[in-house]
Amino acid sequence: MTERVWWRDGVVYQVYPRSFADANGDGIGDLEGIRGKLPYLAGLGVDAVWISPVFPSPMADFGYDVSDYRGIDPLFGDIDAMDALLADAHALGLRVILDFVPNHSSDEHPWFRESRRSRDSAFRDWYIWRDPAPGGGPPNNWLSNFGGSAWAFDEATGQYYLHLFLDRQPDLNWRNPVVREAMYDAMRFWLRRGVDGFRVDVIYHVLKDAAFRDNPPNPAYREGVDATANRFLPTHIADLPETQGIVAAMRAVVDEFPERVLIGELYLPLERIVAYYGEDLKGANLPFNFLLIGAPWDASFIGGLIERYEAALPKGGWPNWVLGNHDKPRLATRVGDAQARVAAVLLLTLRGTPTMYYGDEIGMRDIAIPAADVRDPFERNEPGKGLGRDPQRTPMRWFPREGAGFTRGIPWLPIGGDVAAINVESQEGDPGSLLWLYRQLLVLRRAHPALSHGAVQVLGCSHAVLVYARTEGDERFIVALNFTHAAAEPPVPLVGEVVLSTHGAGARGPLEGDEARIVRAPAAG
Ligand code: GLC
């Protein structure tokens, strides 16, 4: 008995604003560009657009370093452009989710400038300042997620400040109630303007150990391979029990307004992800489930994952699934072009809110970035480990022409090859394209409640094929996914009318290699 709300039944589409559509020709995407593409998104059949940060920022981490929580960076437009985008989106029936970055601000935020001015500053306690260790050096062994110590020394005041990401992203002090209220007010500022919710950046990091204890060593750490931050376990800087109170408070702010959503970014194990639904489900509406992103692409593994996740959900907690985002290698690169089609069927037929990443609907792949053109600070700090995120942030391809319809200027990241096949316009004209498959799936999902909020049951898994059912009332669909390139017999018979197959509606019998098939089971009785 679940209440019908847009963020349960709907599909979220993530836009990385620098790379979606550039209206003013400066080579960087902007709000006008996104606004111009809203009809495309409505036509695709998604329900909500999540836009990565567009707030004023020196762009040290491309917007995840916010210098004003209540404005729009001139690169992207202005507040009027955001209002216009909201109005157009709502008129098209699309919701708009903004990215909220509470853990840290930019070092250019007036709060931090004021905080670092002197030890007596009224804003000193807005950030996390500590004296050097007794023998000198950083206060403890905490490491930045982007490499090196998480502590930066401030010569002028003789103390270190904490930054779990770049030194240009000082961590706000969420133990200070004045900071909390200022941030909740910033959320209200956007909610009042009609924003439909937030994706909250690294929500699990906001609180750190009050005693500043060292993190323990990570026995699994591989020198030279893993991000250096993984040298220690994040015991005292992530997922502290008190974090739940902050998540609940953010949710309460969102709930002051009707029909809004709170989504939390969480890179945590399954049993910890589900903790973020909160006591009595008063935490995040959707604690992001990234388990598919790192999962081995294997029928039994994924079948097991679905069962473990479903079993771990608190009663009434609504599931969600993600296959890609701006921090992870692209889906088509991870699983290959043929399996990207199977993945589309998986994502859009699982129980729970799916989040799609821009460009995955046309099969965009990671674009190799020459060392000289690297923009991502993560790659710059830890070169050569494959951690850089530029490859998955390259411009959206709209047309098979110069600039790919993304820009008339010089794109901020290379557009890459294969544009002739991987672009919206060409795929719109090809019923066999991935884009058509996504559209068909989105139409089917919208038309059949069984596919959005119906119950899910894994019916069988072989090493190659996963089969599950989605059921609501009298309606029952069987989804069969072949995770291999070879033809395979499904572990349970697929009885019923084929409503969709990646290999054409005439599909019968065993699954072909890379085939995904949806069958409508005959009505019972
Ligand atoms: C999140 C964002 C990532 C950003 C980091 C610091 O993980 O998704 O892009 O660099 O937080 O804000």
UniProtKB/TrEMBL annotation:
Glycosyl hydrolase family 13 catalytic domain boundaries: 14-393
Name of the protein this chain belongs to: Alpha-amylase
SMART domains per the UniProt record, alphabetical: Aamy
Keyword Lipid biosynthesis found: no
InterPro entries associated with the record: GH, GH13_cat_dom, Glyco_hydro_b, O16G_dom_2
Alphabetized SUPFAM superfamilies for the sequence: (Trans)glycosidases (SSF51445), Glycosyl hydrolase domain (SSF51011)
Gene Ontology terms: biological process: oligosaccharide catabolic process
Family that this chain belongs to: Belongs to the glycosyl hydrolase 13 family.
This protein's UniProt keywords: Glycosidase, Hydrolase
One GO molecular-function entry: alpha-amylase activity
